[in-house]
Amino acid sequence: KNEVEQSPQNLTAQEGEFITINCSYSVGISALHWLQQHPGGGIVSLFMLSSGKKKHGRLIATINIQEKHSSLHITASHPRDSAVYICAVALIQGAQKLVFGQGTRLTINP
Amino acid sequence: GAGVSQTPSNKVTEKGKYVELRCDPISGHTALYWYRQSLGQGPEFLIYFQGTGAADDSGLPNDRFFAVRPEGSVSTLKIQRTERGDSAVYLCASSSGIWNEQYFGPGTRLTVT
């Protein structure tokens, strides 16, 4: 079993829909990251959080440490949001090396 | 300022050859990470540097892989006797400290034929 599990693996939605991507983990963490990867490979960090909730524009990330679960929400989705969204956790032990989920491929149709 | 840069962006090599992949971190970032991403998978940790020293190399798959960061800035990932299974995108990231956000480079796509 992977230490970081994301769901769904693939998600297709219509422009304007509210999107939720889930991440569950089984290890002790110091922080959780949400990353965005566009075709071609470039990775952009969206959020780093260790508790509560963060918001940036139409993106919202929440984390529940007790339940070892995080969600990434996109409001008023747009075709330019189409990308792979990756959840990654920083382990509590050792250096800040990241353990990544498999990613969720999001496609927003116009 | 400039972000993390990686060169080359693409590298095609024959099985058995030696390759070097370069990472230029954001200026002043003391922490540098190498990850490998196979097709359709999430990235996997390879090695982490704090300054010039490799603080954690537990992700290197075998002794054909080696990385250096001699002056605490630029890092080179070296792969000897490449195998087809080494084909992947090699990602570098840097941060201003181990508890801070990591900034990723565009990656080097390595193809071993």
Task: Describe what is shown at a glance.
With 110 residues, chain A is an all-beta fold. Helices cover 0% and strands 61% of the residues of chain A. Chain A starts with a strand and ends with a strand.
Number of strands of chain A: 11
What low-confidence regions of chain A span 5 or more consecutive residues with pLDDT below 50?
none
Compute the average pLDDT of chain A. Answer: 92
Question: Most extensive chain contact?
Answer: A-B, 24 and 28 residues
Q: What's the overall geometry of chain A? A: globular
Residue fraction in strands of chain B: over 45%
Report the radius of gyration of chain A as a whole number of Å: 13 Å
Outline the biggest β-sheet of chain B.
7 strands, mixed
Can you tell me the overall shape of chain B?
globular
Largest sheet of chain A: 6 strands, mixed
| Helix proportion of chain A | under 10%
Secondary-structure-based class of chain A equals mainly beta
What is the first-to-last residue Cα distance of chain A?
36 Å
Structural class of chain B: mainly beta
Q: Please, how many helices of chain A? A: 0
